[in-house]
UniProtKB/TrEMBL annotation, chains A, B, C, D:
Gene3D superfamilies according to UniProt: Homeodomain-like, Tetracycline Repressor, domain 2
Cited InterPro entries: Homeodomain-like_sf, HTH-type_TetR-like_transc_reg, HTH_TetR, Tet_transcr_reg_TetR-rel_C_sf
Boundaries of every HTH tetR-type domain copy: 18-78
Keywords tagged on the record: DNA-binding
Highest classification ranks of the organism: Bacteria, Bacillati, Bacillota, Bacilli, Bacillales
Keyword DNA-binding: yes
UniProt name for this protein: Transcriptional regulator BetI
Repeat recorded as keyword: no
DNA-binding region: 41-60
SUPFAM superfamilies: Homeodomain-like (SSF46689), Tetracyclin repressor-like, C-terminal domain (SSF48498)
Length: 216, 216, 216, 216
DNA sequence: CATGAATGAGTATTCATTCAT
DNA sequence: CATGAATGAATACTCATTCAT
């Protein structure tokens, strides 16, 4: 039921997809997620979608553009909206950084689960296709990092975070969160993430595994 | 210059490769690392190696076996030897967990840098090829985890680590270290990792980003 | 001019073949008949048919299925219909076994000549491909033998045949008729069979070469 | 145990084959008989024979010459010797044509059984390879027919055969005997032929299946 | 004499894509 | 808008054959 992403894709472009077009999108998502873009042929997509191959090319021009048409709306959704939806409200409230982090993780996980297949495609192809990497990684840093920086600095002022430079913090958080999403959703193909796991992740990000006495 | 892994592969099998056969290996490594297994044709490998395609298949039988012949020796090298080389010595000494972690990271990073291309192939295909995933992930958990568990419990007894269950610790460390290697070597394609970055990673793993007063 | 079989094949499946598709069929028949299935490449077929190799595979999937698509309709035509067309009418009439045999041979020869190339393919591959052999020989025995048995027993009752067991008669007739078709159409590649030859064959099957006085 | 043919091949050429060379010959015979010349690769032969492919080509030059080296000695054995061994003695004796035919069939069947694989190869390739056909069929007619003609005419004079022209008789006998060998040894892959079957064949060739009263 | 190494030319089959209807 | 038909270029892989050692 990846209709969610699907609908978002629609609304953001205000395009009405016919039934056949929807079937193409859904078939492509399933196959790309499962076997990877390179190992999925347009013939397979057409067969699963029960349309002719020609219809796919009529709509999307090339296989590559089909991939982008699936990925990009979701990509935009996943990274930038981070701030607008979550940060905006929470940071101004009285909530702690821990609360923010928990909420932030929960929220992103929920979004990733709802669109797991697209999410898998993004990670797989981000790592696999040199060109995608070059286009999307800068985007991530620009958009996502800039907003998170504000939040981190806000909580730094409140004394909830150590005085490690914000850039380094971001890097560490990205590394961990990226590793978390990749391992949970791509490597392990998890269907759900339970609260405890979120809790453990938050705790690790905040305090690591060293005993408190060993702080320097 | 991934001759290092290459030589290890050789010695472990004590096979003498001819000059042309070496060129095949090197061409395959470069192309698989750069464009991914699925996007590299045997024709391209043959062309870069300046041999006939037939020679590739005479030696390796299938493209798949060629991939495995490149990956597996390095894979065995990277994961299990962790304990024997590094853990063995350090854990018995008077060194702290922080020292161990630092040394461990340094050591693995050095190994990964020496064989960066193979390393990139492993990560890319681990994520991309469902079958490889199913074969290699259990292996990682078995071999690598079992040895690290010993170390963690040793340092727990010494009071250097919090009382989080070892399994959770391992999971968090794997997540972070995996994210670290994937982002540094695959996404960012770094040629080197400076000391400061190692230091930051160690610090994050031990203490996170929360201020010490916020400990629970 | 093997259009005859070709049309029958068509009608039995009620598939409309495009001009190019017909050229594929005709090219495949010619080449398989001339050089044998194993010695004919799909590239050759495509070239002779003046289509792309891809077109062949779009239609038939594999080279093997192409062979079967050529062979099977004709095969079904050649063996079972034997009874329905020929036997049915003749056996009930006042005609002699000699008359029946002559008519039967004439009829099968005519059919084989009209589709000589397909016929050559069937015999060649029946002998050459172990798998085809296993599928088709039982079919021949089942379908063809069962109907001929009735005819032979009818004429036995009329006293026109010796009292050799029907099974043995059938075996001898099959051996001779099979040898006849194989030698005439495959080994000698005859374009026509004249009446005299049919007469000689009938005579041989009925009376052999011994002088009548030497009967036992 | 097709050593028999094998030895004859040796003696007729007075060549001593090394152990490896014998293994090549035996491997080739088995594989050609089983899967056909076209579907057997020199690599397979080399593997089964446990020699290098190069050795095969050192010995035989081409795959084609290897086939001929297997076929020709046996071919010469099967057809011409017919007369010398069998005809010579029998025809001059007081034996009947029936006795001759029985002995002749027995003798040829025995020879074919001893070298069944070679025999299968000959029939398969005779039918399959246009070139072989063109070389060998004239040979058969020349050599084999000429000798049998003498026998038939001898027995004709003795009144044991009808007055059908010798040529027609030969053709009919060839057709039946050819059909017999092809069906028994290639299609049905029989391991042995029992006496009764020989008896039935002889009877059919002499008297056919018509009742004696129906003679003209 | 025997072979490991190497290959040019195929081999069946797949691919993304185009276009007339 | 949708598709059946068609394909050039590739794809992984095989083949019979050569040659230096």
């Amino acid at each position: 039921m990846s209709n969610n992403m699907f609908n978002e894709f629609l609304s953001s472009e205000s395009v009405k997809l016919t039934v056949k077009q929807q079937r193409i999108v859904q078939a492509a998502i399933r196959l790309f997620a499962e076997k990877g873009y390179s190992n999925t042929s347009t013939a397979e997509i057409a067969k699963l979608a029960e349309v002719s191959e020609a219809s796919i090319f009529k709509q999307y021009g090339t296989k590559d553009k089909l991939l982008l048409a699936l990925i990009i709306p979701q990509f935009k959704e996943f990274f930038p909206s981070m701030a607008d939806e979550v940060l905006g409200q929470l940071s101004r409230s009285q909530s702690t950084f821990e609360g923010f982090l928990r909420e932030f993780l929960r929220n992103r996980i929920e979004l990733a689960l709802k669109n797991k297949e697209i999410f898998q495609i993004i990670i797989k192809e981000l790592i696999y296709k040199e060109e995608l990497k070059k286009e999307l990684i800068p985007y991530i840093f620009e958009v996502a990092a800039s907003r998170l920086t504000q939040v981190i600095e806000l909580f730094k002022e409140r004394g909830e975070l150590t005085d490690i430079p914000t850039g380094k913090m971001l890097k560490s958080l990205f590394t961990f969160v990226g590793g978390f999403f990749a391992s949970q959703f791509v490597l392990l193909n998890k269907e759900s993430i339970d609260e405890q796991e979120i809790e453990d992740a938050v705790r690790f990000m905040l305090h690591g595994i060293g005993s408190s006495s060993s702080n320097n």
